[in-house]
């Protein structure tokens, strides 16, 4: 019984250290998926090149300054995943929920497993 309790604590700490406690989320559309904080070709193509990120943040009802920061953190040249992680960490649960819903409203799936 004692081992079970220790194992649970160790597992929880490992998950938190691994980023599972963050506000990062998986985005899926048109056969491509990526974590919102990950710099990759799919994110650039789906969110930036298509103009979707502008529609997503506009539909999120977030303050304009936060919308601008999100667009810049995702699409501006030279940004790192740290920029978006910092923004997500500052957002309230309500703001994060609104952003995720706006992704859904723009034909994205959130947290869809890669092989599903």
Automatic annotation (TrEMBL):
It comes from Geomonas subterranea. This is Lipoprotein. It comes from the Bacteria. PROSITE patterns: PROKAR_LIPOPROTEIN.
């Amino acid at each position: 019984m004692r081992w079970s309790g220790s194992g649970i604590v160790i597992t929880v700490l490992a998950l938190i250290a691994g980023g599972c406690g963050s506000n990062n989320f998986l985005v899926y559309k048109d056969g491509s998926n990526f974590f919102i904080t990950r710099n990759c070709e799919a994110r650039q193509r789906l969110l930036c090149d298509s103009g979707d990120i502008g529609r997503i943040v506009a539909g999120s009802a977030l303050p304009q300054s936060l919308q601008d920061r999100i667009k810049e953190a995702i699409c501006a040249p030279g940004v790192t995943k740290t920029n978006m992680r910092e923004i997500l960490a500052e957002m309230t649960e309500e703001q994060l929920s609104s952003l995720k819903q706006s992704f859904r409203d723009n034909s994205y799936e959130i947290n869809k497993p890669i092989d599903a």
